[in-house]
Design goal:
The protein contains 9 helices and 25 strands. It is an alpha+beta fold and 427 residues long. The chain folds into 3 domains: 99 residues, Sandwich (Tumour Suppressor Smad4), CATH 2.60.200; 102 residues, 2-Layer Sandwich (Phosphorylase Kinase, domain 1); 172 residues, Transferase(Phosphotransferase), domain 1. A hairpin with a 2-residue loop joins strand 10 and strand 11. The chain is globular and about 65 Å long.
Length: 427
């Protein structure tokens, strides 16, 4: 049985009430009556924060609240909780303790997170309607599968769960790729949840791959953009190289596998994500002449605020780069001229990969090229996709590079135009 924690309301609304919460079952606090602890105060956001445990470690996460979440009187975005910590939310004081096996209390009922505070997300001055009820809570990323297939972790990789890398405790496996494996970790010094990327056990001693990781981490750390996943630092423990990144809740692959069931609101959410990722790609190339080379759904991640961010900007992702085992699933997201080695990566090829990812986010399907090299319209796979997106999509994934968008300014213009379209008023 998993570890349980005890929450006691020591001040404010519900004073004296106690909850027993379990690992893997988020406990929500906020103004919405669907939250596990309801706060009838305008100082609280509708979904203010959540408390969640994984592998014996509990943490509290602020959900982009208006007035902030505090632990021991310090404002936090996320924090690993320790026994006798106090969480302060809109005048409510909550004491955290680990529960003894014989403890009894009121079980916290996990609920789907209600919509964000004002019922909408905002980016670039554009309001986005909340996600439908079925997808209101971001999918928990289990790391079991990506668009490249199931993650098969080695015994050595699994054995690292529960161990320390310096001040970092690796608490669970959350993802993998051809070269790297990613862990969820708790940082005991900064009291926060982070992600830790390290090389796969089979490549850990490959000098070329090690150089790829170090070089990519350094370049990525220099790139600071609100829509790019932040590299916090790099490190080495004995002979193990690792990179520490901000922790993200889910990926586009997780969120949009059932895209055809999400309706028009899901389509608009995917469109907003493509806008924000385009901004990150534009920044990388315009400011640093850096291309991504590997845009695909598992590289588009979402934080606690449901904000899309691009993973891996600064790393080399091309099919010929160190350690990549290219295959049909990976090639589905790579421009055909790069697959044929007839052209080098460019802005055009990154836009093509983003278009393929957009197709997946609209349909839940891996894109398949026909005999002419074209990808069928997403409208054919999902009736909720409006025709206004069809022309944009076709220009993103045109088989001939000269028929694609030549840069991000025109692409962003069209995407934002589509985002302001009257079709969304019925969502």
């Amino acid at each position: 049985m998993g570890v349980k924690a005890k929450l006691k309301i020591e001040a404010g609304f519900g004073r004296g009430k106690e909850y027993i919460i379990e690992e893997g079952k988020p406990f929500y606090v906020g103004r919405d009556r669907k939250c596990d602890h309801y706060i009838p105060s305008g100082r609280a956001s509708r979904v203010h924060c959540k408390i969640e445990g994984t592998n014996g470690s509990f943490g509290v996460f602020d959900l982009n609240s208006r007035n902030g979440t505090f632990v021991n009187d310090q404002r936090i975005s996320s924090r690993v909780l320790r026994p006798r910590d106090f969480i302060n939310v809109a005048g409510i004081r909550i004491r955290f303790d680990l529960a003894k096996p014989e403890s009894e209390g009121v079980s916290g009922s996990p609920v789907s997170a209600p919509a964000a505070d004002a019922g909408a997300e905002k980016s670039d001055g554009i309001l986005v309607s909340p996600r439908p009820k079925a997808t209101a809570k971001p999918a928990a990323r289990q790391g079991a599968e990506t668009e490249l297939g199931k993650c098969n972790f080695s015994d050595e990789e699994r054995a690292l769960v529960g161990t320390q890398l310096g001040e970092l405790k690796l608490v669970s496996l959350i993802g993998c790729g051809n070269r790297c494996v990613v862990y969820k970790a708790s940082d005991s010094v900064k009291n926060r949840i982070v992600a830790v990327k390290t090389l796969r056990s089979s490549l850990a001693q490959d000098k070329k791959v090690r150089h790829w990781l170090v070089k990519g981490a350094k370049r990525s750390a220099e790139l600071r953009h609100e829509n790019a996943v932040r590299v916090i630092r790099g490190g080495r423990e004995d002979d193990t190289l690792y990179v520490v990144l901000e922790y993200m809740e889910s990926s586009a692959y997780d969120r949009y596998r059932d895209a055809s069931e999400g309706g028009l609101v899901s389509v608009k959410s995917a469109l907003q994500s493509v806008v924000t990722v385009s901004r990150a790609l534009e920044f990388g190339y315009k400011e640093h002449r850096i291309l991504h080379g590997g845009v695909r759904p598992s590289k588009i991640l979402y934080d606690e605020r449901r904000q899309a961010k691009l993973l891996g900007l600064g790393f080399s992702h091309g099919p010929q780069s160190s350690g990549v085992l290219a295959g049909e699933r990976l090639f589905a997201f790579i421009a055909p001229e790069v697959v044929r080695a007839a052209s080098k990566p460019s802005v055009s090829t990154d836009i093509y990969s983003l278009g393929c990812s957009f197709y997946f986010m609209l349909t839940g399907r891996i894109p398949i090229r026909d005999s002419r090299g074209a990808i069928p319209s997403p409208c054919k796979a999902n009736a909720a996709v409006p025709e206004s997106l069809e022309r944009i999509f076709e220009m993103m994934v045109a088989p001939a590079p000269e028929n694609r968008y030549g840069g991000y300014s025109n692409l962003l213009h069209d995407l934002r135009w589509a985002l302001r379209g009257e079709v969304w008023h019925s969502a």
